[in-house]
Specification:
Layout lengths: L1 H49 L5 E11 L2 E12 L2 E9 L4 H13 L23 H17 L1
């Protein structure tokens, strides 16, 4: 009798474990398919947002404040379907420290911009420069306005 109760208890525990594993698997599988749908939906949304921008070459001058005072940075972007396919920066300062920061920025910002949706780009710190990206971001906002008109 004792063995029969023990066997019945073990069977019940096994059934509970199997059901729990099955439910966890179902939830994970269902969650993954929902995530795939969300990603697809988000990428379609991003494509339709990018359609707002006209293909072309745009340029603007961005402004920012450094410890030495007001600074400017020239930015040129080429857009194709809302994606930045080419970019250049023009250093527009003659202050020694700002010149060094803008040149370092200009030499190293490309990986954060090229191949990206214009709406995804917002630079913070690039090659030790935390202020020059502010000038880039300011120019970027001006370019977005140009590309929508």
């Amino acid at each position: 009798m004792k063995n029969k109760n023990l066997t019945t208890g073990i069977i019940i525990v096994v059934i509970i474990v199997v059901i729990t594993i099955g439910l966890a698997y179902y939830q994970e599988t269902n969650s993954n398919s929902n995530n795939l749908f969300s990603r697809e939906k988000n990428s379609k949304s991003a494509l339709s947002e990018n359609a707002e921008y006209k293909d072309g070459i745009y340029d603007a001058i961005g402004s920012y404040i450094s410890p030495g005072g007001a600074e400017e940075l020239g930015v040129k972007l080429t857009l194709l379907n809302g994606i930045v396919v080419d970019s250049s920066v023009e250093v527009l300062t003659d202050r020694e420290i700002s010149l060094e920061m803008q040149e370092d920025f200009a030499a190293n910002y490309h990986p954060f911009v090229l191949g990206k949706s214009i709406d995804e780009i917002e630079l913070t710190k690039v090659s030790g420069s935390s202020l020059t990206p502010n000038g880039f971001n300011d120019a970027l906002e001006k370019i977005k306005v140009q590309a929508r008109s």
